[in-house]
UniProtKB/TrEMBL annotation:
<keyword id="KW-0456">Lyase</keyword>
<dbReference type="GO" id="GO:0016832">
    <property type="term" value="F:aldehyde-lyase activity"/>
</dbReference>
<dbReference type="InterPro" id="IPR029061">
    <property type="entry name" value="THDP-binding"/>
</dbReference>
<dbReference type="InterPro" id="IPR019789">
    <property type="entry name" value="Xul5P/Fru6P_PKetolase_ThDP_BS"/>
</dbReference>
<dbReference type="InterPro" id="IPR019790">
    <property type="entry name" value="Xul5P/Fru6P_PKetolase_CS"/>
</dbReference>
<dbReference type="InterPro" id="IPR009014">
    <property type="entry name" value="Transketo_C/PFOR_II"/>
</dbReference>
<protein>
    <recommendedName>
        <fullName>Probable phosphoketolase</fullName>
        <ecNumber>4.1.2.-</ecNumber>
    </recommendedName>
</protein>
<dbReference type="Pfam" id="PF09363">
    <property type="entry name" value="XFP_C"/>
</dbReference>
<feature type="domain" description="Xylulose 5-phosphate/Fructose 6-phosphate phosphoketolase C-terminal">
    <location>
        <begin position="589"/>
        <end position="790"/>
    </location>
</feature>
<keyword id="KW-0786">Thiamine pyrophosphate</keyword>
<dbReference type="InterPro" id="IPR018970">
    <property type="entry name" value="Xul5P/Fru6P_PKetolase_N"/>
</dbReference>
<comment type="similarity">
    <text>Belongs to the XFP family.</text>
</comment>
<feature type="domain" description="Xylulose 5-phosphate/Fructose 6-phosphate phosphoketolase N-terminal">
    <location>
        <begin position="11"/>
        <end position="371"/>
    </location>
</feature>
<dbReference type="InterPro" id="IPR023962">
    <property type="entry name" value="Phosphoketolase"/>
</dbReference>
<dbReference type="Pfam" id="PF09364">
    <property type="entry name" value="XFP_N"/>
</dbReference>
<dbReference type="GO" id="GO:0005975">
    <property type="term" value="P:carbohydrate metabolic process"/>
</dbReference>
<dbReference type="InterPro" id="IPR005593">
    <property type="entry name" value="Xul5P/Fru6P_PKetolase"/>
</dbReference>
């Protein structure tokens, strides 16, 4: 494509100034990678001025700062409120440079002052022990997107734009990033952006041609093919392509101007006519060389415009005089003496190019969303409780009342609360939310959609069959100061394992950044669980997400397994009011026995675990057995096992413990919610058998409790990768979490029963066989076992 500018929008003076400002950004990017001293090159460059380890990524940095500088021009011209997301994973130098130059970095880190000494500290801390990494981490002002894993920049950008009508979210998308599945699906987010109530997202696809050492796919297809690809996604693509800085500055200025005018026109028309018809939003394809303005060649090998520019263009600087000379020539090509004054401060005529105060993208409060966060207006969750006459007798769907609770939360918070999920909210019995808000939808409609489609451009329920995209929307929404709730099937929550991982790391790092205000917690309901896959089978049986969660920092992760409706409501209420956590709630959507009235549920959930006196008979005595459980089906089976044991052995003393907050099992020194050793020993004893019936994989309980005094007597039952198309009880039997297996386990572990329990064991095994045969013949569980209820 021709590099000729469409129009010379910039005057000669403006072109000179904006180019010098960009040179200052590029100088800072290179300086971060190489220099630990002599930051302004006032002395000839010497080996001792160079860092011992050269870390960081140069390749995408010039393109990032190029876009940032040009967006700044339009912020000043139009008074825009904008933030900037950097998709290229290691693109921090290209953003840190302009953030430092506009002064925000020095404001939050006074020792990185806008002078020679501060610049030296700024250079040294980059990719340096005790400093900051090469991603746009939480320590960087203006960042809400870390980029440690590629693929989520677009979805984060849209999450930030929802319900922010005056915000422009500019997002630089790496061409390597564009090869990921999550990024590919996220281009469809434009079908969910309402131009009346939402802000705008302006993607800039950065085609610099290469990844680490391979060409990028989108850079190696024709201009027309690329254009039609994005037109097919529903965008209006604009192209800025070339390498000559003067022509590229003019093209970028004109193209960005055109895009901003298109956005303003789209929003004005929609808002004046109150018609949110889906527009074809503009986007930019920026094709520039990898490592633009860096060394052309090193040791006879092409660098600029090739994969060798991806990370550190030249290495072995200290021991190679030729490389040292070439590095100095490269750094001096930016003419730092014309960019910074004698004291190391950006020259006044360049400083004036940046926006001021909160108009700076690095200081926009939306990028530190906790500053804007307002607490939810909450109805009283106890109003949605299930009334009980006695524990363990009534069956009710667990998640249905939660849907009513979420419905009324949304009604009270129609501008800062949304419910997210991958096409499963109805399946998960949360469909009452549609009474106050439909599913967001700006794509085409068919007549039959009016009959139960629940679609509307004004909807606030975000559904798309891409867990990646929906999770990214939620994260962007939370990071900019709002609230949300996400539900998904247990078997497919693993799709967002790595996204959970990245968000957990963001939260953990943010806790060490004092100027970052707390954001709303990410609340994740896992339902359609392993124990109720009657028709889906083995592929839908995987409770292992909890194992992933436990790997993360105890400062930011919480796991709850409410056994019934009222506990679920109490847990959800707590989670929705919390900040800076990832709250994982596991609760099945089907009908289950209900155990606690609302007052008892509140007490139980506040403690996190506790003895159920009504299911225990050891009051005032030492128990012979501790029967413990976590999860809805495991609780039912543990209660049924307790009932069997008490029927067959009337003098047996059983203490029944239910666990809602899984981290209570951890020692207090390992998790803030953990019980002290004395509390744990008081509940679980120091020497009695413990049968623990668990929702997930058994070893997780051992992992949490391995340091406890009585761990040697702890026997855990959980999912063992057994089953297919099973009835609930048959599946439990195959994995030995059923009432019969638990009772047999108890007999084998209680010394007084080992001598007298053989006949009871035989009866229990025979009953297991009978239950399985009945299921195979009739397709349902034996009614008297399926309809079991607590009778003691």
């Amino acid at each position: 494509m021709s590099e000729k500018a469409d129009t010379n929008l910039l005057s000669t003076q403006e072109l000179t100034l904006i180019h010098r400002y960009w040179c200052a950004c590029n100088y800072l990017s290179a300086g971060m990678i190489y220099l630990r001293d002599n930051p302004l090159l006032k002395q000839p460059l010497k080996p001792e001025h160079i860092k011992q380890r050269l870390l960081g990524h140069w390749g995408s940095s010039p393109g990032l700062s190029f876009a940032y500088v040009h967006i700044n021009r339009l912020i000043k011209k139009y008074g825009l409120s904008a933030i900037f997301l950097a998709g290229p994973g290691h693109g921090a130098p290209g953003v840190l440079g302009p953030v430092y130059l506009e002064g925000t970095y020095s404001e939050v880190y006074p020792n990185k002052s806008e002078d020679e000494e501060g610049l030296q500290h700024f250079f040294k801390e980059f990719s340096f022990p005790g400093g900051i990494g090469s991603h746009c981490t939480p320590e960087m002002p203006g960042s809400i997107h870390e980029g440690g894993e590629l693929g989520y920049s677009i979805s984060h950008a849209f999450g930030a734009a929802y319900d922010n009508p005056d915000l422009l979210v500019t997002v630089m998308v790496g061409d390597g990033e564009s090869e990921t599945g999550p990024l590919a699906t996220s281009w469809h987010s434009n079908k969910f952006l309402n131009p009346i109530r939402d802000g705008a997202v302006l993607p800039i696809l950065h085609l610099n041609g290469y990844k680490i050492n391979n060409p990028s796919i989108l850079s190696r297809i024709s201009h027309d093919e690329l254009k039609h690809l994005f037109m097919g996604y529903g965008w209006t693509p604009h192209f800025v392509e070339g390498s000559d800085p003067s022509l590229m500055h003019q093209n970028m200025a004109a193209t960005l101007e055109r895009c901003v005018q298109e956005i303003k026109s789209i929003q004005k028309t929609a808002r004046n006519t109150n018609n949110p018809k889906r527009p074809l939003w503009p986007m930019i394809v920026l094709r520039s060389p990898k490592g633009w303005t860096g060394p052309q060649e090193v040791d006879g090998h092409k660098v600029e415009g090739f994969w060798r520019a991806h990370q550190v263009p030249m290495s072995n600087i200290k021991d190679n005089p030729q490389h040292l000379q070439q590095l100095e020539a490269w750094l001096r090509s930016y003419q730092p003496e014309q960019l910074f004054d004698e004291n190391g401060r950006l020259k006044a005529e360049l400083k004036s190019l940046a926006p001021q105060k909160e108009q700076r993208m690095s200081a926009n409060p939306h990028s530190n969303g906790g500053l804007l966060r307002k607490a939810l207006r909450m109805p009283d969750f106890s109003d949605y409780a299930v009334a009980l006459e006695a524990p363990g007798k009534l069956s009710s769907p667990n998640t249905k009342p939660l849907g009513k609770f979420l419905r009324d939360i949304m009604q009270k918070n129609m501008h800062n609360f949304r419910v997210f999920g991958p096409d499963e909210n109805s399946s998960n019995k949360l469909d009452d939310i549609y009474e106050v808000s439909k599913k967001t939808w700006l794509a085409d409609y068919l007549p039959e959609d009016a009959d139960g489609g629940e679609l509307s451009p004004d909807g606030r329920v975000m559904e798309m069959l891409s867990e990646h995209t929906v999770e990214g929307w939620l994260e962007g929404y939370l990071l900019t100061g709002r609230h949300g709730f996400f539900s998904t099937y247990e078997s497919f929550v693993h799709v967002i394992d790595s996204m959970f991982n990245q968000h957990a790391k963001w939260l953990a790092m943010s806790k060490d950044v004092p100027w970052r205000a707390p954001i709303s917690s990410l609340n994740l309901l896992i339902t359609s669980t392993v124990w109720r896959q009657d028709h889906n089978g083995f592929t839908h049986q995987d409770p292992g997400f909890l194992d992933i969660v436990v790997n993360k920092s105890p400062e930011v992760t919480r796991i709850y397994l409410p056994p019934d409706v009222n506990c679920l409501l109490s847990v959800a209420n707590h989670c929705l009011n919390s900040t800076d956590y990832i709250n994982v709630i596991v609760c099945d959507k089907q009908k289950h026995l209900q155990y606690l009235n609302i007052d008892a549920a509140i007490e139980h959930c506040t403690k996190g675990l506790g003895i159920w006196d009504w299911a225990s008979n050891d009051q005032g005595e030492e128990p012979d057995l501790v029967m413990a459980c976590a999860g809805d089906i495991p609780t039912k089976e543990a209660l049924a096992a307790t009932s069997l044991l008490r029927e067959h052995f009337p003098t047996l003393k059983v203490r029944f413990i239910n666990v809602v907050d899984l981290y209570k099992l951890s020692p207090q020194i390992e998790h803030p919610h953990g019980l002290s050793d004395r509390e744990f020993d008081s509940l679980f004893t120091t020497n009695k058998p413990i049968i623990f019936n668990f929702h997930g994989y058994p070893y997780l309980i051992h992992r949490l409790a391995y340091r406890r005094t009585n761990h040697g007597n702890l026997h855990v039952r959980g999912y063992k990768e057994k089953g297919s198309i099973n009835t609930p009880l048959e599946l439990a039997i195959q994995n030995q979490i059923d009432r019969f297996s638990l009772a047999i386990d108890a007999i084998n572990r209680i010394p007084s029963l080992q001598k007298i329990g053989a006949h009871v064991q035989e009866k229990l095994r025979n009953r297991q066989i009978e239950c399985c045969r009945y299921a195979y013949e009739h397709g349902v569980d034996l009614p008297e076992e399926d309809e079991w209820s607590w009778k003691h």
